[in-house]
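Fold sample X.
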Amino acid sequence: MTSKNDLSSSKDEFKALLAKRLFQIRNLRGYSLEKVAEEGDVGLTPQQMHNHEIAASNILPFHLDQYAKFYQVPVGYF
């Protein structure tokens, strides 16, 4: 049986992986947080996006979809 701590750990690992992938693609493309906020139609401030990139806050599915559209990658990339 899976314990509550195991589920929490898996969730944290997934959140950290998403954060890492967001940070990587933004930097590979040479974009600033401000550029993504202004041109990305993600609906977030640079500070909120930074929080996603350091896994300090959860990413809503809608925002993940918006990131994918902006970076022109499938959602599965993240």
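Fold sample Y, listed below.
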Amino acid sequence: MERYNTMTSKDKVIIHVRFSPDGAVSEIGERPAGLDAQQWYNRLSSKAGSSFETLSGGRGFFRLLPEEITELKATALQ
């Protein structure tokens, strides 16, 4: 019997992002120590930009699997 990936959007972690009026990142979730908010956003955007969704009011979020976040955090300071 063939196995299928049963991961759903419920299995993903949402990383919330809040932007300042000038477009800089003011807040972001799951940020590893050693990176500021803008650096973490840049890292996520370059590696997982297709997972970002824009919201109104200077907000947005990344929807990623926990394993993806762990890997991104592990390589963030390299």
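Sample Y note: Strands lie at 13-19, 25-28, 52-55, 59-64.
Also: DSSP finds two helices and four strands in the chain.
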